[in-house]
Structures are given as structure tokens and as C-alpha cells.
Design a protein that fits this description.
This protein has seven helices and five strands. It has a single domain, classed as Rossmann fold (3-Layer(aba) Sandwich), CATH 3.40.50. By secondary structure, the chain is an alpha/beta fold. Helices cover 49% and strands 14% of the residues.
Length: 195
């Protein structure tokens, strides 16, 4: 075999190894995001919701109604959006609305982490439920880890009917989850090379 042939063969073998590792990691990622516990039995200091996904705010409000914490913080709210706008159509009394706080500074998961850290530090929060889509939890936790959040965070998943449980039967779901998995890998890589 020529030198060029050896280089090409080595490149294919390397690509095959990387692809195999990616596929195994993706399958583990998929298993992981479907294993989060939805049983919120413990009382926490706060409930934190990340905007951007279906039913997240609704689920956060439900936890607040069930008295799982005394305050609900919604991070990543659009400018000029009020609490009344977010709870429109829900029967929520004034006392409950007074327990909801909004964060307007975040537009990305990275910014969510910074906004949450600032809020948690200001409020001296020691424990919280993190409400976000199940596929978004790994990246959210990685971003919160990156800002050295010294708080007990319990993920609370929101499952969307738009994301097929059997991703191998839906090309659209596979592409969506693959993109999220790649974003998660990028965060992990970034965190691992920080000095």
C-alpha cells in the first residue's frame, strides 16, 4: 500500500472511530433524557423555569401551586412581557402571582445560567427545581456547572408531544435531538478546557 493509501485508510479509520463514539454517546444521551424523575416530593427554596419550550411555564406554575417552593423564577422572558401575559388563560390568584419573578436578561442557555446565578445569589437560594424540556436538561446543568452554581439543583423534565419517543422512527426528531446533543458536547468540551 502506498503512503497516500495508508493516510486515506487511517483517516477513514479515525472517522469511523469518532462516528462510533458519537453514536454510542447519542444513544446514552437519549436514554438519559428519558429517565429523569418527575416526582417532586421534596420542598425546595425555589422553582426555576427556562423559557423556550412547550409547557415549561405551565409546569413551573403547577409546582408552585402544589407548594413545592415559595417562589418561581422564570429566566429568559421577552422584554415587555408581564406575569399576566405568561399566565394568560390560567386561573391563578393574586397571592400566587406575587410569588413569580421574571428574568429579562437571558436569550440563550449561557445567559440563562448567568441570570440564574445572579438571582440565586441575590435571594440566597440553597435548593431549586430546574424546569425545562427533558432534552435540554443536560446542557442546562452543564451551563449551570460552568458558572460554579453552589446550589442543590434538581432537574424537573417537561416532555413534549412534538418530540417522538422513538427518535429512530422520526427523521425530524433525530435531527432535533442530534443538534441538541452536539450543543451539549460543545458545552462539555468548553468546560473541560477552561483554565
Amino acid at each position: 500500500m502506498t503512503q497516500r493509501g495508508k493516510i486515506i485508510l487511517s483517516a477513514f479509520m479515525l472517522f469511523d472511530a469518532i462516528l462510533s463514539i458519537w453514536v454510542i454517546g447519542f444513544i446514552l444521551f437519549w436514554f438519559n433524557i428519558n429517565e429523569y424523575n418527575m416526582d417532586a416530593q421534596q420542598q425546595k427554596d425555589a422553582i426555576i423555569v427556562l423559557t423556550g419550550g412547550q409547557h415549561r411555564i405551565e409546569q413551573g406554575i403547577k409546582l408552585l401551586e402544589d407548594d413545592k417552593a415559595n417562589v418561581l423564577f422564570i429566566s429568559g422572558v421577552s422584554e415587555k412581557t408581564s406575569i399576566d401575559d405568561l399566565v394568560s388563560g390560567s386561573e391563578i390568584d393574586t397571592n400566587l402571582k406575587n410569588k413569580i419573578e421574571l428574568g429579562y436578561m437571558a436569550t440563550t442557555t449561557v445567559e440563562n445560567a448567568a441570570e440564574i446565578k445572579n438571582w440565586i445569589t441575590e435571594k440566597n437560594i440553597k435548593s431549586a427545581y430546574l424546569v425545562t424540556s427533558n432534552y435540554h436538561i443536560p446542557r442546562s446543568l452543564a451551563e449551570l456547572s460552568a458558572v460554579n452554581l453552589n446550589t442543590d439543583i434538581t432537574p424537573y423534565p417537561v416532555y413534549s408531544e412534538r418530540i417522538a419517543a422513538k427518535w429512530w422512527q422520526s427523521w425530524e426528531t433525530f435531527i432535533f435531538l442530534a443538534k441538541e446533543y452536539n450543543k451539549y458536547l460543545c458545552v462539555c468540551l468548553r468546560n473541560s478546557i477552561k483554565f
